[in-house]
Amino acid sequence: MNDVIGYVLIALAILNLSGLLLLFRRLGHASSPAATSEPVVAAAPEPLATDEATIPTEALAGMLRRLDHRLGDIEDQVRHTPAVSMASDAGATNDRALALAQRLARQGATPQDIAETCGISLTEAELLHRLHSPR
User: What are 11-62's pLDDT values in tens digits?
Assistant: First the structure.
């Protein structure tokens, strides 16, 4: 499950990077004098040209910040997914449930109580009751 999420994250990152690359290319072509249909005026004030370059840079910076936040949120979701779904953790949880069931059977609990408390089947609880209950 975690491998799939990792692949999805990689695919999203590649798509976002390719989108940014295309955006950079478009901005590069749009700001070049050959791409514009208006003639270049030599007496154009310099601050106007720098303001035009600043706006796309700020927009790109905002997009990168949003992308960074989204990736951070996805990483947090991956970190907080329950680890019980993994086989090793499920085995450890099952072992703890069976140890608790054995202890309850030794203390004289009924098979129904053991099954409800430990989350095991009634048949397993009856078997543990027969094996471990005091007679």
Answer: 888 888 788 777 778 877 665 555 445 544 444 445 444 445 555 788 888 8
Structure-token pair, residue 59: 């927009």
Instruction: Annotate 88-100 with b (16+ C-beta within 10 A) or e (fewer).
Output: eeeeeeeeebeee
Contact 124, 101 (CB under 8 A): yes
Our measurement of the distance from residue 99's CA atom to the centroid of its chain's CA atoms, rounded to an integer in Å, reads 34
User: How long, in residues, is the chain?
Assistant: 135
CB atoms within 10 A of CB 86: 13
Asked if residues 91 and 101 have their Cβ atoms less than 8 Å apart, the reply is: no
